[in-house]
Structures are given as structure tokens and as C-alpha cells.
Design brief:
CATH class: Alpha Beta
Number of helices: 2
Radius of gyration: 13 Å
Oligomer: single chain
Helix content: 10-25%
CATH superfamily: Metallo-dependent phosphatases
Shape: globular
Order of helices and strands: EEHHEEEEEEE
Structural class: mainly beta
Strand order of the largest sheet: 1-2-3-7-4-5
Distance between the termini: 25 Å
CATH architecture: 4-Layer Sandwich
Number of strands: 9
């Protein structure tokens, strides 16, 4: 656990445990849960906190997708192809529940998977 990074950027994508506006190095923020990030105010905070086009987070333990315009109709039952001109905040289901996803940066597609 000591070698895990709180935030990681790969190919311009931000990966973090919590919403991008929270500090993943602060234990209080790391385990903060004040509901889903599905309001205009909460989404605006995340999109203002980082300039990445795609921001992928865990913590909420459910599949979730949003753009600056609002929540996207997607529950992780199928792959989602992301528009290259749009910014996204993506929530992933929990690995401890056997859920995970693969993001293909070339195809710009997020594919949810399950080990169960």
C-alpha cells in the first residue's frame, strides 16, 4: 500500500480515488463521502479542479459518467465510447466487488468488466 499513488496521470487522463477537487493525500478527504457527484455544483468543482479531458475516480463504488453539462445515461452495463471533444468525470464500481474497467485511450472507449 505504501507504494500506491494517490493521483496518477496517463495519456492525459487523471486517475484518483476521490473527486478531483478533493485532496487524496489528506485522509479526511480520501474517505470523504457526501453523496454522488451528480449535481451541477459538485460537477463544476471537479471540472474546475483539473484540466484533464478524462478524469476517472473510484470511491463511489458504482459506475457513473458525467460531462460539464451533466450526468450521462450510463450504468456500466456496456462499453461507453467517449467523445474526443468532451470532458468526462467517470466513476468506477469497486474492485473489491469484482468490478473493474479498461480504458482504451486509442479507441477512446471504457469497457466495464467483472470477475464474477
Amino acid at each position: 500500500m505504501a507504494s500506491l499513488q494517490a493521483r496518477l496521470e496517463i495519456d492525459g487522463c487523471l486517475f484518483t480515488h476521490v473527486e478531483p477537487w478533493l485532496d487524496p493525500y489528506d485522509i479526511v478527504d480520501l474517505w470523504n463521502f457526501d453523496g454522488w457527484p451528480n449535481t451541477a455544483e459538485r460537477l463544476a468543482k471537479s471540472f474546475a479542479a483539473a484540466n484533464n479531458r478524462v478524469m476517472i475516480m473510484g470511491h463511489i463504488h458504482r459506475y457513473f459518467a458525467a460531462t460539464p453539462a451533466g450526468v450521462v445515461e450510463w450504468q456500466g452495463k456496456q462499453a461507453i465510447r467517449l467523445d474526443r471533444q468532451t470532458r468526462y468525470l467517470i466513476g468506477l464500481a469497486a474492485v473489491c466487488d469484482g468490478k473493474f474497467a479498461v480504458f482504451d485511450t486509442v479507441a477512446n472507449q471504457l469497457t466495464p468488466l467483472s470477475s464474477r
